[in-house]
Fold DUF421 domain-containing protein.
Amino acid sequence: MITILASTNIIMRAIFAYLVLFALTRIMGKREISQMSFFDYTVGITIGSITANLALDRTQSFLSILPSLVVFAIFQIILSYISLKSVTFRRIVDGSATILIKNGKVMEKALLKTRLNMDDLMIKLREKNAFRLADVEFALLEPDGQVSVLLKSNKQPVTPSDMNIQTQYMGLPDMVIEEGRIIENRLREKGLTRSWIMAKLAEQEIYDLSKVMYAQVDTSGNIYRLL
């Protein structure tokens, strides 16, 4: 009986810890792991450790651990806000980009400073489809650890503007059908009607909405669907 009660207690604590962690991560904002600064990573690890302790350590009450989680979350939100408003503070917390290649020349001191060797640099360049050093004009190590590469002008792909070709605005397509159901508010936002959607689908010989998994409409009025 004691074992069952103990197991139930751990399960309940784990559920509560998960909900707390979910709420805190939502409040602190979305950010990809690759975009996290060292400070973000440290705070995330700390909050994760405290939450794990909340779930497993039955000798401590929820109320004794919860304040520390809230404090870390509040500090993270405040510091993130300050970073948005202050360039100087953002440089201190996140750092700044480091030039690894300048005017086609590898900056050896920068490699030493960032603790990268030539093999590491070449791996980073290949990830950006730059396989030859001779093709690179500039390469910068960003604060998030990614490398930005600018190829030399004669090695860059040709664009329509280079050939004076006029292109049309594409915009962002909107989802209008999801799992066989029309998203009515999206139609209203785009000034479209249900009958217009059905007519477009009929042009593609589709008359049953339940057979349409997803459908998008672009700014030109074209509809793309997935059955």
In short: The first strand starts at residue 98 and ends at 102. The first helix runs from residue 2 to 28.
